[in-house]
């Protein structure tokens, strides 16, 4: 059975009193409330700059609504028609545009994806094939950022060709307003085949009578240049575009051939022999407009992944004839203000406010509404499905490895209904995919990209955050089957290493060896072991919440398999025969996109167990310090080598919060603030690393609020300090979470915190805070206060309960009044029992005869003191009556900070006794026991 391991510790009066007195003094002496003007953000959409992250974050600047199906945004070119300049279609440093395509993903890696159906307004006459324009020398235009506007729901650029383009969207439609220069032919190219990574088919038809261009493209090929398993199409996007000006002429092209007057064309780029679209191949069509009535042309465009008729129906429903561009734009702005306005931050600087709302904006772009207005959507079986009752939308585009770490929790915090529909959507996808939960889904295709089984962590997190309105029991059944049934794909190396085809690569080894070996089918055995441990922890939590105790137990145990790849202080790759390959903590061998040193921390569900294996809190703190800093003391937060942190990528993003587990919450406050202030900005380079469909931006949003979800499947929040003096979160289902933190912009350090009016020393919040809301009142300072926040967040282990916890304890004479025997069984390493008596012993009364399986002793260094004071020699005894004792453990020469001792079979007793024989490593005479734990068999 999994259980939270956190200090119960109700009784630490002396320490608590000292902290309270210090805080009281600080509060009286430093009136900070008036330091920051509280500027209410009434139109948060105004604070969004959609150019943020467009140089390196791989975001796109174009128009989209929250979770919208359409993302109408520029396609830059650097002179090669077969390569998008950056995965989002746009790179801030590349100021030439070859089209405005209807779909995009924000922050992907590889060579992008989607970018379907580029429209290019061209000032001139089409006389050669656009597909033959291999260097984009003719049908493209430069532009200046001075002539560009990038707002939430609106994008505008005046190209150097003289054409001004404005774009806005509803969920499934777009409105374009194109103003052509006088004296030039007003042409519109529709480059049907030119999805970012090409197409296998495309077709287009022009109907001058209805001023309509419609068609479709069949694409996929996400990361197809890396591996042949991805070199395939798996979706078709249909579009219909209706213009408000008559067509003066029409034409089409395929490959190098232009057909003036043509009204239909077909032909994809193909993916060539190497997964790249082929230069010179492809098709499209064009029209010229009769601009005698004015140089401005309006377009209304509907899309669908199901059918041409659904694209038309979406257009009719959301953007019917007569709807003005400005109406659609206003609705898009309103939609953003509604969703962004669920979090109100006040009192920050303009730059902080812009960074925050731009990050929140980027957090709410994906997954995307995928069903049409009539409820139909394409399943992963390539069949048309219809929403069932209770599901308001089907969502697509699940960047699993990224978004399970916090983005889906943020979405669900704000919109439990959306979170639940995302969970149901993932279940539907799995049901339509032979029960396989693909780790990275693009539209209705599974791409398998990255590692682990992230849906198994994501759905339990959504449920924990209140997104319960999906068929959770069916999801659990399906996920358990996937996690216990070895498939042919699990036994395959196809796609290795970036896109291994199996949902659980080498699941057979997981079931037999209890880790994924170095020579298994996963991208990296050690990293996969961590990912699978996390996924199985998620399943154990969902099972627990659904009342399935045996499944909770089964997966709770599997969640601890990470221990099998912990060796000599690190998570390490391990051979199938149990031996360890040569090891370098800076190497990424065994890991995806990270080193052993970076991945070693990635045990979010049992940080306590990890720290214990490292040697206790003091060791963990020291290692974290060196992880985040260079040897000269400067920060090492990215690009600092494999032994240092990489806060620009997912494996490291939780780590600044880990100090909270070691009793040094002030160092979390310091490190998180440093990352917020130095790696993030409201600029094109202001997102560190690819934004990964909002995963990185969601980290920023959480961290700027001073909160962070960590353990998948759980809804406790870790606490740092907010960046803003005032934060209000209004959940879509009612509760409000409010944070008051006067002086926050310049004072990151928590001196005290009250939760709903009651002081707390916890550096975390219980699940009830997310569920029911509440208020946090921070007292902050510019000076670190290491004594606040020493109550660690929960960790989860499979060991049975510590039966000694909180039981009556006696012992030899204590060193002083605040180092008494009960402090060795109070669950906290913030205090200890100390004795210098000639015969040193600690005795616990369990209250009833109890079968014992193991003991854990937390020594001096586990509590932050020198390891020289760790207990060297000791015995552990049990007794039925407190008189007749049986010695069950004889520990000699111990040096560990935390020592664990299996009890012999049959060990049981009501009384436990720890006899300290040699209390220290040196000749010192004081026994120091921070915790004495006994685990039931
Ligand atoms: Ca990343
Ligand atoms: Ca203690």
Based on the model shown, name its key terms.
single chain; 937 residues; alpha+beta; Beta-galactosidase, Chain A, domain 5; Glycosyl hydrolase family fold; 4 domains; 11-stranded antiparallel beta sheet; 7-stranded antiparallel beta sheet; elongated; disordered N terminus; binds calcium ion
Tell me briefly what this model is.
The chain contains 18 helices and 45 strands.
Tell me what the structure shows.
It is an enzyme of class 3 (hydrolase). Its EC number is 3.2.1.-. This is GH92 family glycosyl hydrolase. Residues 791-937 form the F5/8 type C domain. Residues 1-40 form the signal peptide. The chain has 937 residues and is of the alpha+beta class. It has 4 domains: 3-38 and 737-794, no CATH class; 62-337, Beta-galactosidase, Chain A, domain 5, CATH 2.70.98; 345-736, Up-down Bundle (Glycosyl hydrolase family fold); 799-936, Jelly Rolls (Sandwich). It has 18 helices and 45 strands. It has an 11-stranded antiparallel beta sheet. Strand 5 and strand 6 form a beta hairpin. The chain is elongated, with a radius of gyration of 30 Å. The chain starts with a strand and ends with a strand. The model is unreliable at 1-39 (pLDDT under 50). It binds calcium ion (CA) (2 copies).
């Amino acid at each position: 059975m999994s259980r939270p391991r956190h200090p119960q510790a109700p009784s630490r009066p002396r320490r608590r009193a000292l902290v309270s007195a210090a805080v009281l003094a600080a509060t009286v002496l430093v009136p900070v409330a008036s330091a920051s003007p509280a500027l209410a953000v009434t139109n948060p959409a105004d604070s969004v700059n959609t150019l943020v992250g467009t140089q390196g974050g791989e975001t796109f600047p174009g128009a989209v609504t929250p979770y919208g199906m359409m993302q109408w945004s520029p396609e830059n070119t650097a002179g090669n028609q077969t390569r998008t300049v950056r995965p989002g279609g746009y790179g801030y440093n590349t100021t030439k545009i070859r089209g405005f395509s209807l779909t995009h993903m924000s922050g992907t890696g590889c060579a992008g994806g989607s970018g379907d159906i580029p429209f290019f307004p061209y000032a001139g006459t089409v006389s050669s094939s656009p597909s033959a324009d291999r260097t984009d020398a003719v049908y493209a235009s430069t532009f200046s950022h001075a002539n560009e506007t990038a707002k939430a729901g609106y994008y505008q650029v005046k190209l150097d060709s003289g054409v001004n383009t404005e774009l806005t969207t509803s969920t499934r439609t777009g409105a374009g307003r194109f103003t052509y220069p006088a004296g030039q032919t007003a042409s519109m190219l529709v480059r049907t085949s030119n999805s970012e990574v090409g197409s296998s088919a495309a077709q287009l038809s022009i109907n001058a009578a209805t001023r309509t261009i419609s068609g479709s493209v069949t694409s996929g090929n996400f990361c197809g240049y890396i591996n042949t398993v991805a070199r395939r199409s798996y979706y078709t996007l249909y579009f219909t575009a209706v213009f408000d000006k008559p067509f003066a002429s029409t034409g089409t092209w395929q490959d190098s051939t232009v057909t003036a007057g043509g009204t239909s064309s077909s032909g994809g780029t193909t993916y060539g022999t190497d997964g790249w679209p082929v230069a010179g191949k492809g098709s499209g069509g064009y029209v010229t407009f009769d601009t005698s009535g004015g140089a401005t042309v309006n377009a209304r465009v509907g899309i669908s992944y199901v059918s041409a008729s659904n694209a038309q129906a979406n257009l009719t429903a959301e953007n019917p004839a007569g709807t003005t561009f400005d109406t659609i734009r206003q609705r898009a702005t309103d939609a953003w203000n509604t969703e962004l306005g669920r979090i109100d931050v006040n009192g920050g600087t303009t730059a902080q406010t812009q960074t925050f709302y731009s990050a929140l904006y980027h957090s709410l772009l994906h997954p995307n509404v995928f069903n049409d207005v009539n409820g139909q959507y394409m399943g992963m079986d390539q069949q048309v499905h219809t929403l069932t009752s209770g599901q308001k939308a089907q969502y697509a585009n699940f960047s699993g490895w990224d978004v399970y770490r916090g983005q889906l929790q943020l979405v669900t915090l704000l919109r439990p209904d959306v979170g639940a529909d995302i969970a149901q959507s993932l279940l539907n996808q799995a049901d339509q995919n032979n029960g396989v939960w693909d780790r990275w889904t693009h539209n209705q295709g599974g791409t398998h990209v990255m590692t682990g089984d992230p849906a198994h962590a994501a759905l339990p997190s959504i449920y924990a955050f209140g997104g319960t309105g999906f068929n959770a029991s069916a999801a659990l059944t399906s996920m358990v089957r996937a996690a216990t049934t070895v498939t042919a794909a699990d036994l395959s190396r196809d796609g290795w290493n970036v896109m291994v085809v199996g949902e659980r690569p080498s699941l057979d080894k997981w079931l037999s060896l209890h880790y994924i070996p170095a020579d298994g089918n996963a991208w990296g055995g050690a990293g996969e072991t961590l990912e699978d441990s996390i996924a199985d922890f998620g399943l154990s939590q969902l099972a627990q919440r659904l009342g399935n105790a045996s499944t909770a137990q089964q997966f709770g145990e599997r969640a601890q398999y990470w221990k099998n790849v912990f060796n000599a202080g690190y998570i390490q790759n391990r051979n199938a025969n149990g031996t360890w390959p040569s090891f370098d903590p800076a190497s990424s061998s065994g890991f995806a996109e990270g080193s052993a040193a970076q991945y070693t921390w990635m045990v979010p569900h049992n940080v306590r167990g990890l720290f214990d294996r490292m040697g206790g809190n003091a060791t963990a703190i020291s290692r974290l310090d060196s992880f985040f800093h260079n040897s000269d003391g400067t920060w090492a937060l990215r690009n600092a080598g494999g032994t240092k942190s990489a806060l620009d990528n997912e494996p490291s993003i939780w780590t600044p919060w880990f100090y909270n587990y070691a009793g040094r919450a002030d160092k979390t406050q310091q490190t998180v603030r440093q990352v917020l202030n130095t790696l993030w900005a409201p600029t094109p380079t202001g997102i560190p690393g690819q934004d990964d469909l909002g995963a990185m931006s969601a980290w920023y949003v959480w961290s700027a609020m001073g909160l962070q979800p960590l353990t998948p499947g759980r809804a406790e929040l870790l606490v740092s300090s907010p960046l803003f003096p005032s934060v209000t979160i209004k959940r879509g289902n009612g509760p409000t979470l409010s944070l008051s933190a006067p002086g926050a912009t310049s004072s990151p350090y928590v001196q005290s915190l009250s939760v709903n009016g009651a002081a707390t020393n916890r550096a975390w919040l219980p699940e009830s805070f997310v569920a029911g809301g509440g208020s946090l009142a921070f007292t902050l300072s510019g000076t670190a206060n290491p004594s606040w926040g020493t109550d660690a967040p929960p960790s989860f282990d499979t060991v049975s309960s510590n039966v000694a916890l909180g039981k009556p304890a006696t012992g030899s004479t204590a060193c002083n009044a605040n180092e008494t025997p009960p402090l060795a069984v109070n669950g906290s390493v913030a205090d200890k029992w100390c004795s210098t008596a000639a015969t040193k012993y600690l005795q616990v009364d369990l209250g009833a005869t109890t079968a014992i399986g193991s003991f854990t002793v937390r020594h001096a260094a586990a509590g932050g003191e020198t390891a020289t004071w760790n207990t060297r020699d000791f015995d552990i005894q049990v007794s039925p009556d407190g008189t007749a004792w049986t010695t069950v453990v004889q520990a000699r020469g111990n040096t560990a900070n935390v020592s664990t001792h299996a009890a012999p079979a049959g060990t049981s007793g009501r009384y436990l006794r720890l006899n300290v024989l040699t209390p220290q490593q040196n000749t010192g005479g004081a026994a120091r026991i921070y915790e004495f734990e006994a685990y039931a068999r």
